[in-house]
Write a structure and sequence with these properties.
This protein is of the alpha/beta class and about 210 residues long. It has a single domain, classed as P-loop containing nucleotide triphosphate hydrolases (Rossmann fold). The chain is built from eight helices and five strands. Helix 3 runs parallel beside helix 5. The longest helix has 25 residues. The termini are close together. Bound molecules: P1-(5'-adenosyl)P5-(5'-thymidyl)pentaphosphate (T5A).
């Protein structure tokens, strides 16, 4: 059986980790091997890059440096974890992927989309995302959720409201461009409602899988 690649996207606190765990349980109940992972990170080396890019730090990290670090981590992650898992038929559930670079570094920080596309082409040209769940909710709600969980803010959580609004608009534009791949879910709804909608998408993917 061929593996499937599912990604989760959205602003801070949208509920991606919660939904990723739900998908993992759903797939395990269907006897599917599932690999749950995240970006930046997912392997020991890529997690070290995650630490570098998220910690507030004392040196300036330009938008370009941030973009290159995201793709450096992604290249390691794709080669060491994602590709091998898909090759053996596992389903990979990834909390953020290249759409996040378009939304955060592209829409949020102004990095040209053409540069992001070029890096994506170099890192994972032949990797097809089967389904992306975009958990969408108003920025103040997402930030309140994220901040209620931890008092310590990373470099992105410390960003302005305007930055996070641009990120959300970036996701909106991506979803408009690729409506077949990117499913928008109302993440402001109660968790049970969100999980019901996610379940419908996952059950459809299970029905569509090759025998
Ligand atoms: N980044 C990442 C880039 O800039 N470019 C890139 O290319 C990539 C890959 C990663 C950061 O890196 C940036 C973006 C990010 O800022 P992260 O920790 O992975 O950081 O991302 P966060 O969004 O910060 O992750 P969070 O863990 O904060 O948010 P989640 O996973 O979306 O939310 P979750 O599931 O932890 O839920 C947050 C809280 O809300 C509750 C949960 O119980 C939890 O307490 N909740 C709900 N409450 C009510 N109703 C619901 N429907 C709820 N769903 C969840």
């Amino acid at each position: 059986m061929k593996g499937r690649f599912i990604t989760l996207e959205g602003i801070e606190g949208a509920g991606k980790s919660t939904v990723a765990a739900f998908i993992e349980r759903t797939l395990q109940a269907a006897a599917v091997e599932v690999v749950r992972t995240r970006e930046p990170g997912g392997t020991p080396l890529a997690e070290r890059v995650r630490h570098l890019v998220l910690e507030p730090g004392t040196e300036e990290l330009s938008a370009l440096s941030e973009t290159l670090l995201m793709f450096a981590a992604r290249a390691v992650h794709v080669a060491n974890l994602i590709r091998p898992a898909l090759a053996r038929g596992a389903w990979v559930v990834c909390d953020r992927f290249t759409d996040a670079t378009h939304a955060y570094q592209g829409a949020g920080r102004g990095v040209p989309p053409a540069l992001i596309d070029e890096l994506a082409q170099a890192v994972h040209a032949d990797l097809r995302i089967d389904c992306t769940l975009w958990l969408d909710l108003p920025v103040p709600e997402g930030l309140a959720r994220a901040r209620s969980r931890s008092a310590v803010r990373d470099r992105f959580e410390s960003e302005t409201l305007a930055f996070h609004e641009r990120v959300r608009a970036g996701y909106q534009a991506l979803a408009a461009r690729e409506p077949r791949r990117i499913h928008r879910l109302n993440a402001a709804a109660p968790l049970a409602t969100v999980e019901r909608e996610v379940d419908a998408v996952v059950q459809q993917l299970l029905r569509d899988r090759a025998p």
